[in-house]
Automatic annotation (TrEMBL):
Domain of life of the native organism: Bacteria
Subunit details: Monomer.
Molecular function as annotated in GO: kinase activity
Name of the encoding gene: aroK
Purpose of the protein: Catalyzes the specific phosphorylation of the 3-hydroxyl group of shikimic acid using ATP as a cosubstrate.
Cofactor: how and how many bound: Binds 1 Mg(2+) ion per subunit.
Family: Belongs to the shikimate kinase family.
Co-factor requirement: Mg(2+)
Organism: Polycladomyces zharkentensis
Catalytic activity: shikimate + ATP = 3-phosphoshikimate + ADP + H(+)
Positions annotated to bind Mg(2+): 16
Protein's name in the database: Shikimate kinase
Binding, ATP: 12-17, 118
A matching Pfam family: SKI
Length: 173
């Protein structure tokens, strides 16, 4: 059953930040799949990538998503690459309303300048962001709604999503 509010989108579009604000506004718990991965493995994301490679990380991510979706209704902030596995996409569509956060490549670079916690962005940030955007073109398109975040604060984005969510829920009561 569709019961969660699931945030997807490229890395740096604000899923974690907007998720926190949304969870407060909606009075729903927040789960961030990246944080659950770190808690359950006892390793940082950077360590996991180093020791298990990206595919090792993706395997844990899929397990964690499965567990979280089986839980009570909540706001779920996902990792930017969660859409890379078709089984994750199918499960998210089945179990929640999926909201895609968007931002321009320049805005993502501004937000993530100096970041050392995202293994896929190390090196030339501009080049890495552009490359990931190209590789992932179309992968976020299955979302129920899309929200442009460039030029809006995380609180404004959360407020836009809250209003839309409340409207949708009213229609469904
Ligand atoms: N709307 C916004 N405007 C400006 N800065 C923002 C906005 N949303 C988030 N940020 C900032 O951008 C950075 C990345 O945000 P955040 O960690 O929430 O992204 P994310 O989508 O969760 O990324 P990831 O997929 O890597 O987990 C943070 O420093 C955050 O404060
Ligand atoms: O875009 C990605 O593939 C990633 C985004 C982060 O949320 C983390 O899940 C990790 O750094 C990988
Ligand atoms: Mg995040």
């Amino acid at each position: 059953m569709k019961q969660h509010l699931i945030l997807i989108g490229m890395t740096g579009t604000g899923k974690t930040t907007v998720g926190r604000a949304l969870s407060e506004r909606l009075g729903l718990p927040l789960t961030d799949t990246d944080r659950v991965i770190e808690q359950t493995t006892g390793q940082s994301i950077a360590q996991l990538f180093r020791e298990q490679g990206e595919q090792g990380f993706r395997a844990v991510e899929t397990q964690v998503l499965h567990q979280v979706l089986a839980g009570k209704p909540q706001v779920i902030a996902t990792g930017g690459g969660i859409v890379l596995r078709a089984e994750n996409v199918e499960r998210m569509k089945r179990h929640g309303w999926v909201v895609c956060l968007q931002a321009s490549a320049d805005e993502i670079c501004r937000r993530l300048a100096g970041d050392t916690n995202r293994p896929l962005l190390q090196g030339d940030l501009k080049q890495r962001v552009r490359q990931l955007m190209l590789e992932r073109a179309g992968k976020y398109d299955f979302a129920d709604w899309k929200v442009e975040t460039t030029g809006h604060t995380a609180y404004e984005v959360a407020s836009m999503i809250e209003q839309r969510w409340r409207r949708e829920m009213e229609v469904r009561v």
